[in-house]
Amino acid sequence: MRLAPVTFTPRIFQADPDGGYHWTEVGIFAYKAEGSAPFKDVTRQVLFDEPEMGCQWRYFEVAPGGHTTLERHEHVHAVMILRGSGIALVGTHVSAFAAYDLFRVPPLTWHQFRASDDEPMGFLCLVRSERDRPQLPTVDDLAELRSVAEIARAIRV
Ligand code: MN
Fold it and tell me: Whole-angstrom Cα distance, residue 63 to residue 116?
């Protein structure tokens, strides 16, 4: 049996030879527009943007002590921690995490990922291509979240 010839150009982006969490041909961008939402020291790389599969696969890196936006939205996140460690809020659940842990963020669920103070933290995040914009917590939402001491300690806004 013979293999069919490859008729397309595979996109093989090599990992940075210096060992960083970036890839040839993949741009490193700001996580979000500056001032659009509260976050600290996060970069964004879109590894795959696949309309046919209906998804985007991104890599986010958070500097030591940094954090993503506390937000919620209709679309789901499938997350794998790739490096580092930290604290996550998903819904009302606060958890310490480390490399290779998985998170599923269900629809309309508050979530935030925060890096430990001593090392960068990076995670892969799969989302659908067509998705709603994140909602930020109102003053009332924040008061409700902070009524749980563990959540009050975990979140950054
Ligand atoms: Mn999100």
Answer: 9
Separation of 134 CA from ligand 1 center, angstroms? Answer: 6
pTM > 0.85: yes
- The DSSP bridge partners found for residue 42 are 62
Two tokens, residue 70: 């506390």
Residue with tokens 């709603």: 132
CA–CA distance, 76 with 128 (Å, rounded to integer): 8
Residue located via tokens 């997350």: 79
Between the CA of 73 and the centroid of ligand 1 the distance, in Å, is 7
Please indicate whether residue 125 is annotated as part of the active site.
Answer: yes
- pLDDT tens, 56-76? 999 999 999 999 999 999 999
